[in-house]
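If you are new to this repository, start here. Below is one unmodified record pulled from the training split, so you can see the exact layout before writing a loader.
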Amino acid sequence: MADWLRTPAGRYLLAWEQRFIDAAVIDWFGYHALQLGCPQLHGLRTNRMSNRWLAVNHAPVVRPAVEGPPMPGMGVHPLEYQPEPQALPAMGLDAAGRVSILCEFDALPFEANSLDLVLLPHTLEQAPDPHRCLREVERVLRPEGRVVILGLNPASLWAVRQNLARVNGRMLGRPPRLYLPEEGEYIGYWRLRDWLRLLSFEVERAQFGCYRPPLLSEPWLSRWQWIEKPGGKWWTVLGALYGVIAVKRVHGMRLIDLTRGKTRVAKTAPAVAAVHHHHHRGRDRDTD
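And here is the target side for that same chain:
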């Protein structure tokens, strides 16, 4: 995934994700925020929580920075000018001010109900067991905590090109020329909603993006910049990726008095006097 994010299409996708998360988390308050994987994305740089962690499940590989100017309309991204971190200190700060930790994503070193925000940038689609990873996220999130999930859309033109490349590779008997990262399973948006609903998450917001065709070069991708606006209006669910914001909901509990040695005494209701009027036929006569 890290290698692919350095391609023109990968930087185009990463720039959209950076804008989406920057706008989403800037006004969220709390104390503890965690990003699982994808250190190329500075998902917590606009958030003001006091404790911010970046968790990875493997030591990153040092690669040279990408040379050349950024693509038009995409803005400046740290990946284009900075190398990846060379090491992950036990409790050191990275360039984005995050504490870097090394752990497994399905066994997080946090207590239950302790985090306010968790970011999953392409984490589920690369996890060996995405169900278990999502359950672990539900465990560490506090009630009303939020999770942000970014994933590639299997119903997009990018996924169609990926599948065609695999078919051609099998027919020709040679390794396919894939457009997207090879590893991982792409999880559809509606499938992800079902998983979240089973874990008592409520989807607060969902957005699709990256409507440019699956092209290889920066000049051709830049020429199709005009399609972003009509794509988001007319064929929304066909974007190359999606971003989902969900809130952990906990149903209300009824508090029961557990005081021992005390017996509740039933209170008698006050008596209500009722006035009854009896009418007897033949008896309403005046006597002389």
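Two things worth knowing about this chain: The two ends are 112 Å apart (CA to CA). Helices lie at 8-25, 130-140, 157-172, 189-198, 218-223, 228-234.
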